[in-house]
Structures are given as C-alpha cells and as structure tokens.
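Most newcomers find our protein records easier to grasp once they have seen one. To make this concrete, we reproduce a full record directly below:

===
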Amino acid sequence: MLAPTAAAISDALLAAARALVPDLPEHAVAVPAPASYGRGATLFVTVDQVEHTRRQRAGLRAITRIEHLGLLLGLPAWEPVPVGSLDRRDQQLLRHLPAAAVHVEAGHVTRTAVRPVTVHLALLPGTATRTTIERATAYAPFCARAILAAALPRDKGVLAEADFWGVGVAYRSETLVPPTPWRPQRHTAAGWLFTENVYEQVLAQRVATQEA
C-alpha cells in the first residue's frame, strides 16, 4: 500500500482543522510544532504580514531569548519610553536586544517588535486516548488544541474527558468534541516565546518550499 502523499495529509489536516475551528482564517498555514513543545502536532497559524515584512527588511528573524521578550513585553508598542525609567538590569538588556526590536533615540526607547504570528490550533493526529489528551493539553497556555482521531473512539468516556479538559476531537472532517476557544488570560514572555519559536518554523518551511 502506498503511503499517503504530503498533499493528502495536508488536506486531511486542513479539513479537520476547519471543522474544529469554523472561523479559521482562509490564509492560515500549517507548520510542525517546535520540537521543544512536543513532537507530532501541527499548528495552524496566521502570519502578521506587516511585522514579517518589517523584519525581513531589517534582517530580524525570531527573537528567542526569553529575557529579551520579558523586557519588550514591559514596553508599549510604538510609544517612546525614557531609557532612564528602566531599571539597571533592563538598561543592560537593552544594549543587547536584536536590531529592529526597538528604536533608541534622544534618550527614549520605542518597542517596534510585536508578535509575528497568531496560533489558532494545535492538532495532534493519533488515537484518542488519555495520553493523547495530556499531550494536547500541553498547548493550553498558547492556543486551542485538538486530536485528529485515526478511528472513532470506542470508549465514549475518552470524549467526555477530552471535553472536560477543553481538547477537541475530530474524526476525518467531523467534529466529535469542539475545542474550548482559546482566550489569553494574560500576556507573558513564555507565550511570546512560543510564537517566536513557531515563527522560526514558518520561516524554515518557506525556505524549504523555495528550495524544493
């Protein structure tokens, strides 16, 4: 039996994602989850094209030092702040921020970097089990999450458990359990770091597509 093609896999994932998240933007793209967050998940993402274009022109890729993101998070976007109002540690960090993350002029610092992507869904293919539910739950701080079941679950208790934890379950393009919509409780450096790591995946995928 021939293995399914990449296009067929992509179509199946996309059909399930659109069933689980009906308002998924048309221009959403699918990328593998960063390995540090668990293997096997596919993330459905939209790219902030304005920020992406700005970064491309400035030579700025992903910002992946959490202390840098912590500093940036404390600065309002596009509003100048007196450098002297920062504590000594932040003033030291400011000197080492990547180019184009901030603009410093006349004793003021302005944050120019914003989150480069929005992650709408983490979709994990496999059997719907408590183990898979736990794996999906790892994405709870960052986005909606769901399982694309390889077969209809025989144990209906698994579906109830998935629903309890807010994890969606789909079989083919049918939603068995809708995922709990994700709402950010608060903005954190860890949450921003997740989007930067995903942005790295987007950039890597675009390079691979260009080279294919």
